[in-house]
Amino acid sequence: MLPQYTASDEDINNFLKKRIAVIGYGSQGSAQALNLRDSGADVIIGNRPGKSFDRAESDGFKVCSVRDAVASADVIAVMLPDEAAAEIYSADIAPSLRAHQTLLFAHGFNIHYKFITPPADVDVVMAAPKGVGPMVRKLFLDGGGVPSLVAVAQDATGAALHTALGYAALIGSSRSAILQSTFKDETETDLFGEQAVICGGIPALIEAAFETLVDAGYPPELAYSECAHEVKLVVDLIYAGGLSAMHDSVSKTAGYGGITRGKRLVSADTKAEMKKILGEVQSGAFAEEWIAEKRRGSLNYRKLIEEAKESPVETAGCVFRNILETDAGQKNFKSGKQS
């Protein structure tokens, strides 16, 4: 069982004496900064000029350059995209670092793969919420919190873990769970889960199933409904109670068909490819590939995204969602009539 940490009152009170510079005001940065402030922390934002800079100001934060934010803070929470963090660290964070500050990351990518190598006299910790930024904020406002993985990569002061625990508690994770991890484990499991399941496996399976139905002559909107739209209903059941809750809630026909046919899709060849994907994550090959893609201007990535947006499954999804926006459309769809 994954060990859990407890953030003590002393961890929280000592953390509240520190100034936190949140570097980057995107999805995670904004959510965590707002939660920290609502918990009583002294928070400033370091950001380059642009929309995020302006949004942080409109949310009532003191916003300054990254260098100035780092120079005035005790804890530097690096909330930058993986592909941009090393460049910004080198240009704007490293020159202003001083001994005994804390560098805190929400993802272990740049430390684990050594794209960022901090000096030996600073603490390097991680507090990684297991949820997207909007969920980190929503659950906090609802009185709950997203679980966080906490790890220490470098303890220059002897208090690195306590700082990380205070941070995790104030973004709301002590209301849920603070789990012990490492930069390596968090990074490699996170990347693998994204590629094999969340952002890779599920979309690829949806698209393949959609194409199978359409190629067999079924209406694209119906194929989209069955293979994509209803996925959320099942995922919500799994999220709430695991695979058993899903099997308890769906029809026995669906349950039997799924449990007997699903394993035919995830074959030995599929698992072999999963092991290959995990190997690319563990070796750093994927990380190197992604950073190289970024340095080339993300041209191939942008091309692939545009192709995905123009795919038949996306076109059918737009049509299907438009149908659902009208009562007449919903009635026609449910009755099997074509609009």
Q: Which short descriptors sum up this protein?
A:
single chain, about 350 residues, alpha/beta, nine-stranded mixed sheet, disordered C terminus
DSSP summary: helix tally = 18
Q: SSE order, as H and E? A: EHEHEHEHEHEHEHEHEHHHHHHHHHH
> What class do helices, strands and sheet pairing give?
alpha/beta
Overall outline: globular
Arrangement of strands in the largest sheet:
1-9-8-7-6-5-2-3-4
Describe the structure.
With 339 residues, the protein is α/β, with parallel strands linked by helices. It is built from 18 helices and 9 strands. The protein has helices at 9-15, 27-38, 51-58, 66-72, 82-93, 109-112, 133-141, 160-170, 183-198, 201-215, 220-229, 231-249, 252-265, 268-283, 285-295, 299-309, 312-324, 327-335; strands spanning 4-5, 19-23, 42-46, 62-64, 75-78, 102-105, 123-129, 148-154, 178-180.
Summarize the structure.
With 339 residues, this protein is α/β, with parallel strands linked by helices.
How would you summarize the topology of this molecule?
Elements (H helix, E strand, L loop, with lengths): L3 E2 L3 H7 L3 E5 L3 H12 L3 E5 L4 H8 L3 E3 L1 H7 L2 E4 L3 H12 L8 E4 L3 H4 L10 E7 L3 H9 L6 E7 L5 H11 L7 E3 L2 H16 L2 H15 L4 H10 L1 H19 L2 H14 L2 H16 L1 H11 L3 H11 L2 H13 L2 H9 L4
Parallel strand pairs: 2-3, 2-5, 3-4, 5-6, 6-7, 8-9
Antiparallel strand pairs: 1-9, 7-8
